[in-house]
TrEMBL record:
A Pfam entry, by short name: GDP_Man_Dehyd
One of the GO biological process terms: nucleotide-sugar metabolic process
Name under which the protein is recorded: Trifunctional UDP-glucose 4,6-dehydratase/UDP-4-keto-6-deoxy-D-glucose 3,5-epimerase/UDP-4-keto-L-rhamnose-reductase RHM3
InterPro entries registered for this protein in UniProt: NAD(P)-bd_dom, NAD(P)-bd_dom_sf
Domain NAD(P)-binding: 28-183
Cited Gene3D superfamilies: NAD(P)-binding Rossmann-like Domain, UDP-galactose 4-epimerase, domain 1
Length: 197
């Protein structure tokens, strides 16, 4: 079977940190920025039809874990409903050949040294904050649409993405700034928690 090469990709979250790279890199001359809400089904369907979109890379999300405790509804709305709106557009239009969903390792929750891990992709999801719950819910929708409607889906679970123009309250820039000032680097949870790479 031949590998499919997408012609036109809808990249959600182009106004965010990861999408910023596309907007500012001149090696993507065909990139067109459209400001909108992924929860707007009409806008998403319009873009898919008028721009002949055949692949979606879904980066858009509310990602500030600490903020999720104070406003969890926004995280549910953007991360779950927004994802479902995109998936529904895939189903309705019938044009999308692939859907790549960018999630987070936060869906695993805290991992301890004596945890039985096995296959990482099959590890149990144990989200421990409103952000990770919303991302896990979005993952379940992606998996369900893949199985129910035959949509080719991929989910990635990234950890602490880093780069220029990142919010200073994110882990890596925060630790760099604190270390430069000689301040204590805060660790959440207990010292037995770790991420398995």
């Amino acid at each position: 079977m031949a590998t499919y090469k997408p012609r036109n990709i809808l990249i959600t979250g182009a106004a965010g940190f990861i999408g910023y790279i596309l907007r500012t890199d001149s090696s993507y001359p065909n990139f067109k920025f459209v400001e909108g809400d992924i929860g707007s089904v009409d806008l998403v369907n319009y873009l898919i039809f008028t721009k002949s979109i055949d692949m979606i890379m879904h980066f858009a999300a509310q990602t500030h874990v600490d903020n999720s405790f104070g406003n969890s509804f926004e995280f549910t709305k953007n991360n779950i409903y927004g994802t479902q709106a995109l998936l529904e557009a895939c189903k309705v239009t019938g044009q999308i050949r692939g859907f790549i969903h960018v999630s987070t390792d936060e869906v695993y929750g805290e991992t301890y040294e004596d945890a039985v891990v096995g296959s990482y992709e099959a590890s149990q999801l144990l989200p421990s904050n409103p952000y990770s719950v919303a991302k896990a819910g979005a993952e379940m929708l992606v998996m369900a649409y893949g199985r129910s409607y035959g949509l080719s889906v991929i989910t990635t679970r990234r950890n602490n993405v880093y780069g220029r123009n990142q919010f200073p309250d994110k882990l890596i820039p925060k630790f760099i700034l604190l270390a430069m000032r000689g301040k204590v680097l805060p660790i959440h949870g207990d010292v037995l928690c770790f991420r398995i790479k």
